[in-house]
Design brief:
The chain is mainly alpha-helical. Helix content is 75%, strand content 3%. The protein contains 13 helices and three strands, in the order H-E-H-H-E-H-H-H-H-E-H-H-H-H-H-H. It has helices at 2-13, 37-64, 71-100, 107-141, 146-149, 152-170, 172-178, 195-199, 207-241, 247-277, 285-294, 297-309, 311-324, and strands spanning 24-27, 104-106, 187-188. Strands 2-1-3 form a three-stranded mixed beta sheet. The chain is globular, with a radius of gyration of 22 Å. The chain crosses the membrane at residues 12-33, 39-61, 73-100, 112-134, 154-173, 215-239, 251-274. Its main location: membrane.
Length: 325
């Protein structure tokens, strides 16, 4: 089976393409390592099930448990929804390639839609972390004003801002890619339709396309990171002033889960950026694998971290399980 698949991949890669317009793309995951794709699919599928199950459990718990109907948990629900959509956009297609050799993906309906969701929802996650950092800043630095500032209306406005800002500013990325002429090769050497992997197959100049993604991506992610750092700087400054016994530990404990989530998100993203910059010094399959894992590891770990570290969520899950069983 492996030999047949390898011959099929070699045949696809050796095709002499004409100048006819491209109607679909072919996703070639790890062309040099076909023999261990089935083994890789096992941990990926387990992580996918863990991510979907953990986030669904968290959403159901927050929905059913009245004590969790607070702004902080609504923001956590938004983060879980974004994680689930990212997982469903990327991982099922990757597993379909590994298990059933379903490499084709339609030109517009699937590929560029996947590209839009990946770019927009990734920046939406970053913006949600920024809003959550502001929530923690108000809770610790202005505790008496917290109920009047962080309200349900604030969460609604924040959610609209997260979706509108990132959706509108990332929309041009797939639009610019879709307007390019694809008249030659249609093989994407990646598991997913990333902008750079797709646009470099075009016959046209892609300089503006690459420049827009670079500027938009780093403007959105960079501004969020700066505001998160500022929020935690003020939090740390306020915590160091606390004199009461045990108050510092309690204050830091309220930020611990959120800080760990940001660390997961930024660390995986940073590793992905570094590997892409050092592409010539590392095997080309490494950035592809990291790109897939970036859409899987944070979604799998985020609800677990909050479930383990937040007593209210832990009690809510236990309460629901006792009610069901």
């Amino acid at each position: 089976i492996i030999r047949k698949k390898r011959k099929k991949i070699e045949h696809i890669l050796s095709i002499n393409y004409s100048t006819a317009p491209v109607s679909e793309f072919l996703l070639i995951c790890f062309p040099n390592y076909q023999s261990w794709q089935h083994w890789l699919s096992l941990p990926l599928s387990l992580l996918f099930l863990l991510a979907m199950g953990a986030n669904a459990t968290l959403l159901i718990t927050i929905r059913l448990e009245a004590s969790l109907h607070e702004p902080m948990y609504y923001l956590l629900s938004l983060l879980s929804l974004l994680d689930m959509v990212l997982c469903l956009t990327v991982i099922p297609k990757v597993l379909a390639i590994f298990w059933f050799d379903l490499r084709s993906i339609s030109f517009s309906a699937s590929c560029f839609l996947q590209m839009f969701i990946m770019n927009s929802f990734l920046t939406m996650e970053s913006c949600t972390f920024m809003v959550m950092a502001y929530d923690r800043y108000v809770a610790i630095c202005h505790p008496l004003r917290y109920p009047s500032i962080i309200t349900d209306q604030f969460v609604v406005r924040a959610a609209i801002f997260v979706v509108a800002r990132n959706g509108l500013l990332t929309m041009p990325i797939p639009v610019l890619s879709s307007r390019l002429r694809y008249c030659a090769e249609n093989i994407i050497k990646n598991c997913i339709c990333t902008n750079l992997s797709v646009s470099k197959l075009s016959c046209d100049d892609i300089t503006f396309n690459q420049l827009y993604q670079f500027v938009a991506g780093w403007t959105l992610l960079g501004s969020d990171l700066i505001l998160i750092v500022l929020s935690y700087s003020f939090i740390l400054k306020a915590v160091l002033r606390i004199k009461a016994e045990g108050a510092m530990t309690k204050a830091l404990g309220t930020c611990g889960s959120h800080f760990i989530l940001i660390l997961f998100f930024s660390t995986v993203l940073l590793v992905l950026v570094i590997t892409n910059l050092a592409r010539k010094k590392i095997p080309p399959d490494v950035p592809i694998l990291l790109n897939v894992l970036h859409h899987l590891i944070p979604p799998a770990l985020n609800p677990i971290v909050y479930g383990v570290r937040t007593q209210e969520i832990k009690q809510g899950i236990i309460k629901i399980l006792k009610y069901q069983f």
